[in-house]
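Continuing the series of single-chain predictions for the mutant panel. This is the parent chain; the variants come on the following pages.
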Amino acid sequence: MNLPNRLTMVRIILIPLIVLIFMFPFAQFNINVGQMTFGAVTLTYRNIVVLALFAFASFTDFLDGYIARKHNLVTSFGKFADPIADKLLVNTMFILFAWQGIVPVVAVLLMLWRDTAVDGIRMIANGKGRVMAAGYLGKIKTVSQMFTIIFILLNNLPFELYNLPVTSLMIWFSTFISVISGISYFLQAKDLLLETK
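Parent structure:
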């Protein structure tokens, strides 16, 4: 297994660790995780640890692709596992946020439905010999989702200090871009999806 694929596997392995830390019932075990205060905004050390792990995992997404392209290490496993690792990481975080009531469930559902539909479209296209690479909108979607997750973990800092609801806007922007990019994939493969033979 080459380095880019190892980085992809690291990203996948980090996901259950992030879930464990995020969901662990520290209070039930009388564990005080501590917190930092910025004006009227508090930030728990749990969020800081999760943020650090998420940021590292997100960085491996950039790094594995960069190394694979630069050193011609693109493999079939990488093409398969890399987008799955990205979606597992991002969607897991949004599901955790929805579970805690931080993010509207409808936004998370729309993003999950989009990813499921796009995966189906790609499978059909691949079966007919057409490769559908990630488009420009898809890349914007991924970046906006990652920044949204970071702002959520930071409790909207530093914007919360100025009463600016940037995180809420980012959630809906990510949802909008997610839906639009899904529609874009559908339009690209419409001839394959609607053919009758």
